[in-house]
Amino acid sequence: MPSLSIDVANVTVAYPNGHTALRDASFHLHQGVIAALVGINGSGKSTLFKSLMGFVKPVAGTISIAGNTVEQARKLKLVAYVPQSEEVDWTFPVSVWDVVMMGRYGHMNFLRIASAEDKRIVNESLARVGMTDFRDRQIGELSGGQKKRVFLARALAQNGQIILLDEPFTGVDVTTEEAIIALLRSLRDEGRIILVSTHNLGSVPEFCDHVVLVNRTVLAAGPLEEVFTEDNLNRAFGGVLRQFHFEQSTIQDHDGKTVKLVTDDERPLVFGKGGHLEYKDRQGREDLVEKRQKEAGE
Ligand SMILES: Nc1ncnc2c1ncn2[C@@H]1O[C@H](COP(=O)(O)OP(=O)(O)OP(=O)(O)O)[C@@H](O)[C@H]1O
């Protein structure tokens, strides 16, 4: 099989009611990235996910997943999906263990008898998201963050090389968010492609390498540093973003102490004087800090 990649070329998706949710959308993702799928409500993020999973069929354009059609990729279990909480019926009486075992269904025969190997993988997946102690709990009896972790474990059990996460941080506390981000990073380092839909702009620079910016088409896609610019974000979000200008930064030391803060009211996105992104978490970004210092002639 060719190396892992997603190639979306000139894709148009129209729903049966005639609404065109995406028009002429194109982007490419290669293996070993965490990419953010960013856009306002109704911009086509879920539609793009559904297209990648084969739930909706484009009326034009092509989607190739590691050189396969979407149907072939589904047979090969290449793509795993972690849904938004609203999509799940939490009253359905299944345990955490059952949900994660569902990730193995595609690997079993029609009788769905779990092998020792299936059980080992489910145990390992639960351990990886820190949910081993909850294995016998009913899923309806979990907190929002725990539910997200269980569905992430299901994606791991499926061994999806491409993992699509729909708004994984909604209703999740900071500790759980950090744990999920750490896990996503290790999955990326294993060479997988992680595509995360979010409208939480502020968190994107903290954990994503790539960005796919959508507004009924793909407006821009590529490395974060190139795509996450003020101009692009204004194009994607229009009047939705609020901007604050500070003459004196109270957040942290910046070049010239002038920053601009762009926010969608959840978490701020901070641009330094040079127009570059500022990061809350500088750990692991020593290269950028050094680059900035060089630019400043220090
Ligand atoms: N089954 C459907 N039939 C008709 N139109 C639909 C259908 N699903 C979505 N749409 C429309 O397509 C557009 C894109 O919807 P989509 O759900 O992809 O947006 P989104 O970016 O995921 O939004 P959100 O951030 O609110 O989840 C919207 O205008 C929506 O109303």
From TrEMBL:
Key words, A-Z: ATP-binding, Nucleotide-binding, Transport
InterPro entries for the chain: AAA+_ATPase, ABC_transporter-like_ATP-bd, ABC_transporter-like_CS, Metal_Ion_Import_ABC, P-loop_NTPase
Superkingdom in the source lineage: Bacteria
Keyword Nucleotide-binding attributed: yes
Gene3D superfamilies recorded: P-loop containing nucleotide triphosphate hydrolases (3.40.50.300)
Family matches, as NCBIfam families: PRK15056.1
Pfam families cross-referenced by the UniProt entry: ABC_tran
UniProt-recorded name of the protein: Chelated iron transport system membrane protein YfeB
One GO molecular-function entry: ATP hydrolysis activity
Similarity comment: Belongs to the ABC transporter superfamily.
ATP-binding listed as a keyword: yes
Protein encoded by which gene: yfeB
SMART domains: AAA
Originating species: Brevifollis gellanilyticus
Segments forming domain ABC transporter: 6-241
